[in-house]
Amino acid sequence: MEHQVFEMTHPLIQHKLTLLRDKNTGSKEFRSLIGEVAMLMCYDATRDLPLVETQVETPVSVATTKVLSGRKLAFVPILRAGLGMVDAVLEMVPAAKVGHIGLYRDHETLQPVEYYSKLPQDTSERDVIVLDPMLATGGSAVDAITIIKRSHPKSIKFMCIIAAPEGVEALVKAHPDVPIYCAHIDECLNEQGYIVPGLGDAGDRIFGTQ
Ligand code: PRP
Ligand code: URA
To answer: Which of 18, 65, 109, 209 is catalytic?
Structure first.
């Protein structure tokens, strides 16, 4: 399957991204913005969900109309920062289940360290959307998707807010079957592995830990 990278250029997403990048944006507003951007991105990332025809009685007559075809979704945030996106996407797809993958980057090696993993029991019957605001070296996304693939989901998409070119390349190389949805592909990584210009440490800004 040919790999696909979708950069979401909707004006509302780009506007909110500017506010997210601003170092003067505090945790409360930052959390809200992460959710708002995730909700807008979810709208596009679920564009291919299949529909079936149904009928409902309106107050006036019978409408022949459409509903989602019972396709099952699971959202899997990468802890911690991916948690900031979960509530918003669940608003859009309340029937989805939620799995969690706990990974943190070792600050010296930049390698991801796994500390938690819990996926829905019926993951093999589900389409999975992995959530993490940041795709930097790509190590965390690559490992999270490797872990998820052991449960044989029907499909996997990766949704992030900011991606570095290095991370996109690493993820495409490791998992060419996984489409990437992002709001912006930035310039590069700095020596500490931060995305430039990026938005800083997403987890710390969401949870106010720095
Ligand atoms: C951040 C971010 C990603 C990861 C991206 O998490 O939320 O998971 O870094 O970097 P990578 O592409 O180089 O792997 P972090 O490791 O800071 O953990 P945290 O969310 O617990 O703060
Ligand atoms: N993780 C973050 O939270 N920010 C970056 O810029 C890189 C990794």
So the answer is: 109
Q: Among candidates 116, 121, 115, which has minimal Cα distance to 97?
A: 121
Annotation says 105 is catalytic? yes
* pLDDT tens digit sequence for 83-142: 999 999 999 999 999 999 999 888 888 888 999 999 999 999 999 999 999 999 999 999
Nearest ligand (C-alpha, residue 135) = 1
- Closest ligand to 188 CA? 2
Tens-digit pLDDT profile for residues 189-207: 999 999 999 999 999 999 9
Residue 193 CA to ligand 2 centre (angstroms)? 7
